[in-house]
Amino acid sequence: MKKIHINVSSPYDVIIERGSINNCGQLISQVLSTKKAAIITDDIVDPLYSNTVLTSLQNSGFETYKFVFPNGESSKCSSTLNKIYDFLCENQITRRDVIIALGGGVVGDISGFAAATFLRGVDFIQIPTTLLAQIDSSVGGKTAIDIHGGKNLVGAFKQPALVLCDSETLNTLSAEILSDGMAEAIKYGMIRDKQLFNQIATHNITNVAEIIDYIVSTCIDIKRSVVEHDEFDNGERMILNFGHTIGHAVEGYYNYKKYTHGSAVAAGMCYITEKASDTSVYSELCKCVMAYNLPVTVPANISQLLPYCTKDKKRENNNINYVFCPEIGKSIIHKTTVSEFFNMMEGD
Ligand code: GLY
Predict the structure, then answer these.
(1) Interhelix angle for 261-276 vs 279-291, to 10°?
(2) How remote is the CA of residue 10 from the centroid of ligand 1, in Å?
(3) pLDDT exceeds 70 at position 174
(4) What is the distance in A from the centroid of ligand 1 to the CA of 233?
(5) Which of 44, 65, 190, 241 sits CB 3.0–4.6 Å from 91 for a disulfide?
(6) Tell me: the pLDDT tens digits for 116-132?
(7) Which ligand 1 atom is at minimum distance from the Cα of 226?
(8) From the alpha carbon of 140, which atom of ligand 1 is closest?
(9) Host domain of residue 95
């Protein structure tokens, strides 16, 4: 078992262990005294892992309740959130109980936001079952739902009481969802860890399983160090946004339908690196991105994408913060005006 302690305002551990999902009841009992758990999951994860989680919780003496919603980003909305609140009320979940998010990023984000707001805060555990959720969204306390105005625009910081990462759950991921998570893993290598990048770059989508435990724990440790320095996203945490300024624009331009978040971020990393870094960094990044079946570009031209960048949460009035990597393993946050950013991206 590997344990990474996240030392933030409300500290907690991330446990990384194969098969730990089978033992979640015992592991949760070690950090919380409640014996009543509300599990929130989606209709893809439910048939795969709910029974395992429920059985383990019940064997540890928990009274359990389960809420299942349709998978996909379109469920991360106020209507699903209201259904979750109704489910929590119907089952008399109190502030002494626990909400457990079982699934990928959508499940974690909306369950975390429900836990942050229901009764002004209920304890919350993350059991992430996708690579992206394990290495990024389950750690660090960002929770949110999407509204008509944009993605993740209503949210709260709510640190979980425990994160349980069982990399065996990654065996059931489709190749597309594994690639989605690999984009974020490549991002961690680019912004902070050349060795991680090199390891990823010397593998590909067909054999990355050989190093998946190393990837999960290394990425979580990078996230730990970033979040510990800037829990509330006022400075250094923006480096996690590498590739996301254009990535979010790609997602928005294509209505969150054509590209997964990871694919959009992969293309976003390539676009910004082409303009802001040396050709050698750009070509290493592109090679790596392609080895994981991720896109280097998208069909829309950059001028069509750029208007969507101004919706980015990292924008400040007429300025935009973008992240680039002067070399692999190092990142810089650069603040510039929106028009200078557009000129750079549209220039040759
Ligand atoms: N996923 C970006 C962050 O946690 O800040």
Answers:
(1) 160
(2) 17
(3) yes
(4) 8
(5) 65
(6) 999 999 999 999 999 99
(7) 5
(8) 4
(9) 2-172
